[in-house]
Amino acid sequence: ISRRYATERFSQGKALCRSADVFSHFHQRLRDKKKECFFILLLDTKNRIIREEKISEGTLTSSLVHPREAFATAVRESAASLIVVHNHPSGDPTPSREDDEITRRLVEGGQVLGIGVLDHVIVGQETYFSFADEGRLVTKR
After folding, report:
1. 7 versus 28: which is more confidently predicted?
2. In what helix (H) or strand (E) does residue 103 lie, and over which residues does it extend?
3. Which of the four pLDDT bands, split at 50, 70 and 90, describes residue 7?
4. pTM for this structure?
5. Other CB atoms within 10 A of residue 54 CB
6. pLDDT value, residue 84
7. Cα–Cα distance between 113 and 94 in angstroms, integer?
8. What angle, rounded to 10 degrees, do the helices at 97-113 and 67-76 form?
9. Phi, psi for 119 (deg, rounded to 5)
């Protein structure tokens, strides 16, 4: 029962308050994946979930993500903001240089479109890394 609960999708309209909530939701589903999987959570103006979408599935060490894919869905769904989530198959959630780069590009793209990137959460085997919690998510709103 707990495994099914942990892998259920967020319900539409549920408000997200913490990066730990995001980790709890994705942990069971992503921790044992052998490839990087990249998701976005689309949020309304009150940080309530509009929808969750898988953007890409990569290789053992990388996931090809372009801001175009992330924001196409966000624009189509009229999202006010989004949260980015992906896993590290190694189990170590420490961000790579590529993670820093894609986060920077997504934040910049969001600024142009008026869609905030609230966090980028990297799921590891037993823990996670949150760019917002660590003060590494620079947004100008």
Report:
1. 28
2. helix 97-113
3. very low
4. 0.86
5. 11
6. 96
7. 28
8. 40
9. -165, 160
